[in-house]
């Protein structure tokens, strides 16, 4: 039972938003912010308990201490920015609370997974159940709205069409990971679940196209190309088989697009629009640039985007430039570079870490097109994992030139 607790809790945290949305939709209730808080708090409490119980072991490693200090610094800086303002927008406070609860808790969870990487072994076994539940419920909502000639309305459901589109982009990447990189590929469960996961690949692509999220569509394309690149580099599949899969998949998708009149849906038409035809988004960009011009180097403070722009600008780089300036943005980009580099290196040891790399990449693309980087807790989960996973890197530390031959032999 102990071996199943952490993988289960890991996936519940990773899918927490989507589990809540799916459960409320099945119960016929609208998603409200108060409900999210009630879900987040128990998860946060359990994560903090993990930190306290294992505090002595966690703080032995310098990297873990640095990660925890960086979290405290960001939280305090964010709060101090609000002290110099006459009023506090609700968005600023809600994202601050989400950072203090969910982002910090996810980082602690990532640290624990990095210290004990073997605790993630059963994640692949449980993954399809989370993908199927959240993907089918939320995907059906998007498909039903598109079939009715509209997009998912936040006023009616509490969920936006962008959220549905991004969920389906994530479901697509998780489904592909399970089919081609899962450590559970030799189990009976995999032989049963692979066909539902194949269905989810096609279903997620169609719903993403019909939902209207442009950033989510780009996310899905980039993730698909990245997975193809890793499959080729790691020799996971022969070129003939890979080419056959691509041709068959493309053919089926095209037939479904024609059969279901996907190109005539409101969501698809929105995706086909140019970004310059979105005046609301351009107004946010312009406000962000005006703020950046007033404070190039140091920015206006963490959380200041809510006063400078009025909302997050739907672009991670603009938000960072507004809040922490060129210097802070350069530091964050360097950290992200190190995270991606380390994960790629870890994938040479074991392609199981592709799962974490996909989480990181899809959330990076998400925050570039939408979302607020400080409260994107999935990014923080990977941040905690990467800089605490020193034990995973030890086998190659003395022989840094080892290449993909290692990953092929450790399957």
Q: Can you tag this structure with a few keywords?
A:
20 helices; 76% helix
Set down the secondary structure blueprint:
Blueprint: H1 2-14, H2 16-26, H3 33-53, H4 55-58, H5 62-83, H6 90-115, H7 123-147, H8 154-157, H9 161-181, H10 188-211, H11 214-233, H12 239-259, H13 266-272, H14 279-294, H15 305-308, H16 316-349, H17 354-369, H18 377-386, H19 390-397, H20 404-409
What do you see in this structure?
The chain has helices at 2-14, 16-26, 33-53, 55-58, 62-83, 90-115, 123-147, 154-157, 161-181, 188-211, 214-233, 239-259, 266-272, 279-294, 305-308, 316-349, 354-369, 377-386, 390-397, 404-409. The protein has 411 residues and is mainly α. It has a domain at 124-273. Helix 11 packs antiparallel against helix 17.
In short:
With 411 residues, the protein is mainly alpha-helical. The chain is built from 20 helices and no strands. Helix 5 packs antiparallel against helix 6 (90-115) and helix 14 crosses helix 16 (316-349).
